[in-house]
Write a structure and sequence with these properties.
heterodimer, A: mainly alpha, Amino acid/polyamine transporter I, 18 helices, globular, B: alpha+beta, SH3 type barrels, MgtE N-terminal fold, 4 domains, 7-stranded mixed beta sheet, 4-stranded antiparallel beta sheet, 22 strands, about 25% strand, disordered N terminus, disordered C terminus
Chain lengths: ~425, ~450
């Protein structure tokens, strides 16, 4: 009896702590992510599904460090960078973050525009409406209410899982391809593989996750639940990504259709599958883009103000925290307006957002490794030797991959 | 909030003043002019109101930094262009890290860190440190939290100033120095040995901050700093702060400091606030507290906890002034002066008989205006209204408003005086009820 009671107690604590990890991970499946996964499925079928296993591990390793730093130091990543590396490094890191996040936000609004197109809604109305919604959500909300809305967003990713079942995949084949993947060592395959990994682990999510764990005020004693939250998030996000690949692999790849965007994927789905998977795909894209569009400007404004020592927080009035509100508002406004510019090419914009992430990611990961191994900050909670080997290997691999991605995408654009 | 702004006025452009950023990472030369390393940090003694430099730390090597401590008497030249020591390079001992427990390291503890501005009651981040130079030694005068300090640290001061002067010579930016005098600064760095804040011994500015503001500051800090700051306060301030933080923070402090520590705090807070707090706790935790508290206080509290929280019994405090019949006004005034209370009592004295049954009441004004020899019952109010232990909040509020009472006595069924409900307690209840109603009909009052 006592055991059962304890079990329920643990569940309740876990549910109260659940959030930051799950939300951060899910935001990875944003417009850019869905596009990349769709292309991976359409071009290489089931043969890239195996990649989600190492991605889960990498994601857990990196995000766990973020949330451990948050719980032990009680400070955000930008705070720690400022306090340990000084104002100069912080300034340039924040400049990079603002720059890349503005592009990321543009990519999300591009996703919103694309889904409006698919659902037959006026693009201008949808983008402007979303921008206003995002702005009001943060300015008029509290963290608790916002987090609940975010968790609802997470739930809508189920759309992809359902649409995968609609396409009736051959599960035996799927299982075979995960266990014994057919890796084709072509240049295109490798690049896409790197893109899939690169879109899942981004610089801004390290800042966002750490801040939101701090904001939740999770105590050291409850840290194990926070860890579980990270693990849950990593699994959920990759399962969703897995199903996106599956949908496209099962329909587009089999018919040999090549696509460039998530919009292409949805359009191609219509004749191959049925209307239901088409709509589910479109709604999923909208949900994911809007979700990320909510979080990116907020996380940017928070981090910059944190690092530069300006007043921050949605509980302050404009006069008290002018920098915070200015940054937040400008990011949303720029993103929405760029997307609505006539004749703008959205695909290169999305790609350039990923390139910008790639430039910033190595620095952020190195800062994180230095900070998490700082005895004065972390006390007994620094990385263990084995954990460090795993973490450093992951980081080195990720940096290597982003450099490759960067070089090729730079060449690709020019 | 009406507050006087601290003196942010522009420091006179005088070589006597200088900024930390001017020395930071400058080359340090030994007596023979050989390069030793770069100035990394300055250690100051916190024993005075304005701390004085005692030693500097030289850093060398990359990426494995090594640090050496140089006592201030070995510094022969210190200006932004050159830092020269009067000893030889070989006499310095370099180590992997520099540790000092009690003193303040400016770079590690102050610069770029968060500190409390005890004047404006805010947590701020330090952009630069402003020194007063007396011969060769440095005295910390202000911390800079303004935009100009930020620009200076980034090394753009000249350029930004130039552009500003070209475009808009009268720009606010050029005059905008946000310097806060050191005496208002409370560092938040933690002494690793005692896990308390390295307190500024002579100033104790923190205790001058109103408890409500200090509570808010506390909640703004990271959890470890919350505990450290809380532990650094004296018992009375702790008690005040404890009552001014939200329940989540209270609960966190219990977990961190233990029941015994918090019980000493509950011992000194007014009984009505103590019951408010204990009521919110789970049953087992309340019992735990009552077990380890002073037995007298515990008995009183467990009795109060028996009353419903929205009745007069649940709201009342058991601290009040009372006197017997037959005393003179002079005696009663003397008694008021002698009696020290945890909170200011409402301005009434209650007349009771031997069994503590309520007879009448008198307020301070009446006592002041009466002659000292007069018996107290003569100056008492002709009639005293009271409420019962189980009277509702509404009833209490109604009576207090009707008779313009600052406090109303609470009696049991035998008319025995049990406590008083003060106007601030009833006001917070009534406001809470009013708020709920306002929300229901969707009117948000203007802020």
């Amino acid at each position: 009896m006592g055991k059962l009671k304890n079990f329920w107690r643990e569940i309740v604590i876990f549910l109260s702590i659940l959030g930051p990890g799950l939300i951060t991970a899910n935001v990875d499946n944003d417009a850019g992510g869905i596009t990349t996964y769709s292309v991976a499925g359409a071009h290489f079928g089931f043969s890239m599904l195996w990649a989600f296993v190492p991605i889960i591990i990498a994601l857990i390793v990196i995000q766990e460090m973020s949330s451990r730093m948050a719980v032990v130091t009680g400070k955000g990543l930008a705070d720690l960078i400022r306090e340990e590396f000084g104002v100069k490094i912080t300034f340039y890191a924040m400049l990079g973050l603002v720059y890349s996040n503005v592009f990321n936000t543009i990519a999300e609004f591009a996703g919103i525009a694309a889904s409006a197109d698919l659902l037959g809604i006026n693009k201008y109305a949808m983008v402007l409406g979303s921008a206003v919604f995002v702005w009001f959500l943060i300015v008029k909300g509290t963290y608790k209410s916002i987090e609940k809305i975010f968790l609802i967003f997470c739930f809508f990713y189920v759309a992809y899982v359902i649409s995968a079942f609609y396409t009736k995949p051959d599960w035996h084949q799927v299982a075979r391809d995960i266990v014994r993947p057919q890796i084709t060592w072509s240049r295109e395959y490798l690049l896409l593989l790197i893109a899939v990994i690169g879109t899942t682990i981004t610089p801004w999510m390290q800042f966002y996750q750490q801040s939101s764990v701090v904001e939740k005020g999770i105590k050291l004693a409850d840290y194990k639940y926070s860890k579980l939250d990270v693990i849950c998030g990593a699994f959920v996000v990759n399962i969703v990504a897995f199903f996106i690949v599956l949908v496209c692999a099962n329909t587009l790849f089999k018919s040999g259709i090549r696509i460039e965007t998530a919009r292409d994927a949805a359009l191609a789905l219509r004749p191959l599958a049925d209307n239901w998977s088409y709509y589910l795909f479109a709604v999923g894209l909208f949900n994911a883009s809007l979700f990320a569009a909510c979080i990116l400007p907020l996380s940017t404004a928070y981090c910059v103000c944190e690092g530069m020592g300006w007043e921050q927080g949605v509980n302050k009035k404009f006069r008290e925290a002018p920098q915070f509100y200015t940054l937040y508002t400008i990011t949303i406004a720029i993103a929405a307006l760029v997307v609505l510019m006539p004749n703008i090419k959205l695909v290169p914009l999305m790609i350039s957002a990923q390139t910008k992430n790639g430039i910033l990611l190595p620095f952020v990961l190195i800062f994180m490794l230095l900070l998490v191994n700082n005895k004065r900050l972390m006390g007994q909670y620094t990385n263990s030797r084995i954990y460090n080997i795993i973490a450093i290997t992951t980081v080195v691999l990720l940096i290597g991959m982003t450099i490759v991605l960067l070089v090729t995408s730079l060449m690709g654009i020019s | 909030m009406n507050q006087i702004k601290p003196d942010y006025s522009k420091p006179t452009p005088n070589p006597v003043f200088t900024y930390f950023s001017a020395f930071m990472d400058q080359e340090v030369l030994d007596t023979r002019g050989e390069r030793i390393g770069r100035l990394y940090d300055i250690i100051v003694k916190v024993a005075q109101i304005y701390p004085q430099s005692t030693s500097l730390i030289v850093r060398k090597g990359f990426p494995n930094h090594k640090y050496a401590l140089v006592p201030w008497q070995n510094v022969s030249q210190l200006n932004p262009r050159e830092i020269i020591l009067n000893i030889e390079k070989s006499s310095l001992v370099f180590a992997e890290k520099h540790d000092n427990k009690d003193e303040l390291s400016l770079r590690r503890d102050i610069l770029d860190q968060q500190v409390v501005d005890t004047y404006n009651h805010k947590v701020i981040r330090v952009n630069d440190i402003h020194f007063l130079r007396v011969e060769n030694s440095l005295t910390v005068a202000h911390v800079d939290i303004g935009g100009r300090g930020l620009v200076r640290r980034l090394g753009f001061e000249k350029w930004v100033d130039l552009i500003c002067k070209l475009i808009h010579p009268g720009a606010r930016y050029l005059k905008l120095e946000r310097l806060i005098p050191w005496k208002y600064i409370q560092p938040l760095s933690i002494n690793p040995a005692s896990m308390t804040i390295k307190i500024n011994v002579p100033q104790k500015q923190l205790t001058n901050i109103p408890a409500a503001d200090l509570g808010e500051i506390l909640q703004d800090l990271p959890l470890t700093d919350q505990v450290a700051l809380f532990k650094s306060l004296d018992l009375n301030t702790r008690a005040k702060v404890f009552m001014n933080v939200d329940f989540k923070t209270q609960h966190f402090l219990i977990e961190e400091l233990g029941f015994a520590e918090i019980a000493t705090i509950i011992n000194v807070i007014p009984s009505d606030e103590a019951t408010d707090f204990l009521e919110k706790l789970p049953k087992e935790e309340t019992k735990e507290f009552l077990k380890i508290m002073e037995s007298k206080q515990a008995k009183k509290l467990s009795e109060l906890l028996g009353y419903s929280s929205d009745s007069a019994g649940g709201l009342m405090t058991t601290e009040y002034l009372s006197c017997g019949k037959g005393q003179t006004v002079g005696q009663v005034i003397q008694y008021i002066k002698e009696k020290s209370f945890k909170v200011e009592p409402a301005q009434y004295v209650y007349l009771v008989d031997n069994e503590n049954k309520l007879l009448a009441s008198v307020n301070f004004k009446r006592l002041m205006l009466a002659a000292n020899e007069e018996p107290v019952e003569k100056v008492a109010f002709p009639k005293t209204y009271f409420v019962k232990l189980d009277s509702s909040v509404k009833e209490v509020a109604y009576l207090m408003e009707k008779y313009k009472y600052y406090a109303i006595p609470v009696v049991d069924e035998h008319n025995v005086l049990k406590g008083i409900v003060t106007v601030d307690d009833i006001l917070s209840q009534v406001i809470a009820i009013a708020w709920r109603r306002l929300k229901k009909i969707n009117i948000t009052p203007k802020q």
